């Protein structure tokens, strides 16, 4: 009898956890498993703010997929997905034509959501992947390196605007305020020439976070030079910077670097392939399957799970993506064997920690508020745990964060 074919799209947190769990559960003779990813490495999306600011070398955030998969059980395709044909049950690839599946796992991750704001796609960076993170770092360094070479020095070269004071925006600001003094020293630039501006449309920084911790974060970042413009919306991004508005007041902020960190959506391929979706995210059934498609599982940021207590979607996180990967692998094993019961998925949230640079953070863990070095230590433990879940102790030793004292 023909072995069922399982195809996993994306080696992010959701896809890769599915793959490494499945390889432990399923024998070589039970299924053909293929993992497709556009890079031959996995990058830690949750560390990209560090690579973008240049506080962590880009290479530290990634590892080879071949180092964590069992190649006798998983066939890895280094290729880019261009479409999913749900009727024919095939996936189109850039290099490799088409591959057929009996069961599909979609873990293609997030993309930036710019909400139609004029000029953002053209003139702002988004911390979308490792390649963009490297580009942001290079771009900021280029602005600093150019400043003293011009006859008419342009101070706006040294202005960095961050759009959004949510989790990603705040973590990026935390790294920037530590990186800027290094850049000033390296390129002989007086620190007071540099401006870091955070623009947030909502009435508060880190909406939904504990107010006392938010105050701690704002005070810390302001002390290190961040200007917050809260309740202020970005109306347009231009070649010169951004145009913002608060109430009736419109202001232009000239800036050499604009980073948009205020919105994510699911991968456009989910939308293009005709799945019922909201901004590229599929509201999955309790077993993580796309409605009407018992053979298609969706994990990570391409999925949408409703928090029944507040009747709103859970924010997409690596924590949820990895937990989904575990359940998805178990459910695939049940389907392949035709025995056992499918497991339902409910997020088991342990807490949230938001870093404010390498040595500071805020968070709520197991219901307790933490901040400062304790929270920073916890953040590193969370980062190391993600490595451990995929590549075990060996990967933690190779890529883990240990500078905790
Ligand atoms: P991703 O991790 O985005 O992986 C998707 C994979 O699919 C990638 O390997 C990509 O290369 C691949 N891919 C995409 N398109 C294609 C294609 N067409 N063909 C082939 N392969 C493709 N979450 C937390 O829980 N805690 C945090 O502290 C946290 N901090 C964050 C900080 C930053 C700066 C950012 C940007 C996000 C943070 N998040 C955090 C959110 C978290 O990173 C995401 O929720 C998580 O990465 C989603 O995982 P995923 O498996 O859906 O996809």
Automatic annotation (TrEMBL):
Requisite cofactors: FAD
Record bears the keyword Repeat: no
GO BP annotations listed: aerobic electron transport chain
Occurrences of domain FAD/NAD(P)-binding (ranges): 5-325
Any GO molecular function: NAD(P)H dehydrogenase (quinone) activity
Keyword rRNA-binding tagged: no
Keywords attached to this entry: FAD, Flavoprotein, Oxidoreductase
Name of a matching Pfam family: Pyr_redox_2
Similarity comment text for this entry: Belongs to the NADH dehydrogenase family.
Descriptive protein name: FAD-dependent oxidoreductase
Organism name: Sutcliffiella horikoshii
Organism phylogeny: Bacteria, Bacillati, Bacillota, Bacilli, Bacillales
């Amino acid at each position: 009898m023909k072995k069922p074919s399982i195809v996993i799209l994306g080696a992010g947190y959701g896809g890769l956890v599915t793959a490494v769990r499945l390889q432990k559960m399923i024998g070589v003779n039970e299924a053909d498993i293929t993992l497709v990813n556009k890079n031959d490495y996995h990058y830690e999306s949750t560390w990209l703010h560090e690579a973008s600011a240049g506080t962590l070398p880009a290479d530290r955030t990634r590892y080879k997929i071949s180092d964590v998969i069992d190649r006798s059980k998983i066939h890895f395709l280094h290729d880019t997905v261009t479409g999913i044909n749900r009727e024919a049950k095939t996936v189109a690839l850039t290099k490799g034509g088409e591959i057929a599946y009996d069961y599909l796992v979609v873990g293609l991750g997030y993309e930036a959501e710019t909400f139609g704001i004029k000029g953002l796609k053209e003139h702002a960076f988004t911390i979308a992947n490792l390649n963009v993170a490297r580009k942001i770092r290079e771009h900021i360094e280029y602005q600093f390196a150019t400043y003293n070479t011009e006859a008419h020095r342009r101070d706006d070269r040294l202005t960095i605007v961050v759009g959004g004071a949510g989790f990603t925006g705040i973590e990026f600001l935390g790294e920037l305020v530590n990186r800027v003094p290094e850049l000033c020293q390296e390129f002989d630039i007086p620190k007071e020439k540099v401006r870091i501006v955070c623009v947030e449309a909502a009435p508060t920084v880190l909406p939904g976070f504990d107010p006392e911790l938010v105050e701690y974060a704002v005070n810390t970042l302001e002390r290190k030079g961040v200007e917050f413009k809260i309740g202020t919306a970005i109306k347009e991004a231009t070649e010169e910077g951004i145009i913002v508005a608060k109430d009736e007041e419109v202001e232009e902020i000239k800036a050499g670097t604009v980073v948009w960190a205020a919105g994510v959506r699911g991968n456009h391929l989910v939308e293009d392939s005709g799945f019922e979706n909201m901004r590229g995210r599929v509201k999955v059934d309790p077993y993580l399957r796309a409605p009407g498609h018992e053979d298609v599982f969706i994990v990570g940021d391409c999925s949408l799970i409703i928090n029944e207590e507040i009747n709103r979607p859970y924010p997409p996180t690596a924590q949820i993506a990895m937990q989904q990967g575990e359940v998805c692998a178990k459910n695939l094993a049940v389907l392949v064997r035709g025995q056992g019961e499918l497991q339902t998925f409910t997020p088991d949230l342990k807490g949230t920690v938001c870093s404010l640079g390498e040595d500071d953070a805020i968070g709520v863990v197991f219901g307790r508020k933490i901040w400062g070095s304790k929270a920073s230590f916890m953040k590193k433990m969370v980062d190391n745990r993600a490595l451990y879940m995929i590549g075990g102790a060996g990967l933690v030793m190779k890529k883990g964060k240990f500078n905790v004292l």
